[in-house]
Amino acid sequence: xxxxxxxRVRPEDKVDLDHLDADWKPKGxxxxxxxxxxxxxxxxxxxxxxxxxxxxxxxxxVVLQGRDAAGKDGTIRHVFGPMNPQGCxxxxxxxxxxxxxxxxxxxxxxxxxxxxxxxxxxxxxxxxDVLVVRVHxxxxxxxxxxxxxxxxxxxxxxADSGTTVLKFMLHIDRDEQLERFRKRIDKPHKNWKxxxxxxxxxxxxxxxxxxxxxxxxxCSRDExxxxxxxxxxxxxxxxAIASIVAETMEGLGMAFPEPTVDMDEIKRMYHEAENAE
Length: 277
Ligand code: ADP
Hints:
By secondary structure, the protein is α/β, with parallel strands linked by helices. Helices cover 50% and strands 12% of the residues. Residues 92-96, 124, 128-129, 132-133, 195, 197 line the site of adenosine-5'-diphosphate (ADP).
């Protein structure tokens, strides 16, 4: 079974995050083998991105969500870091600015959506508006409840316009999160990542579980699927995400565009110029 099939959430699936193994590793592969395969995958991803850029016909949007310390930053660095920055744009969504908050909740996300030929990566996304916003009652229930449908319609619009949408929920368990917080304290170069919110949000663990489950059930659609990626092991997480993105991009049937010039004529002119020198 491919990893796309294994980790994909089918529409209306109820994912039980409390009992989902976050320690998964690829079958029959140790870490060294997976890392070797991962290196090959990132080279393949570079080629595929290059083709998407050259073809200039369609785009890819990758949405990353997860609890604090789930590894969104690390995924971007390791899986998408090797891509050509010319055709790749990362957008990190924070607490909405005054301007953003004065528009509808999808406005800032639509603005950041990748244009033709580009790979767009969302570090957090419009899903914050049914996650943190729901958990902290930032808007009335009727308003956030209506957002699932708005989100599905928005993503269908992107898909109909030539954007392939892949959404990854990085799944870590409670112990792993605490361990990562500890490392942030112990390693001076990680201290900057610590925020008060890390610990206060942890108290809302079960509320987030509920909010994530509803997101997965209501917003995983054929045209914009969710994947729940077991992420306690960073190397397994990177391997899984790179595999799924590569498999999806391979399936797009992309091709380099035909040359816009007469190649025989160009070669003839080249030989003439060469002989004249
Ligand atoms: P990160 O944790 O992504 O590295 P920050 O520490 O700056 O970066 O956290 C960004 C914060 O912005 C998160 O707490 C997130 O929940 C919050 N946020 C993002 N989008 C929204 C939103 N639409 N409404 C409220 N808070 C949001």
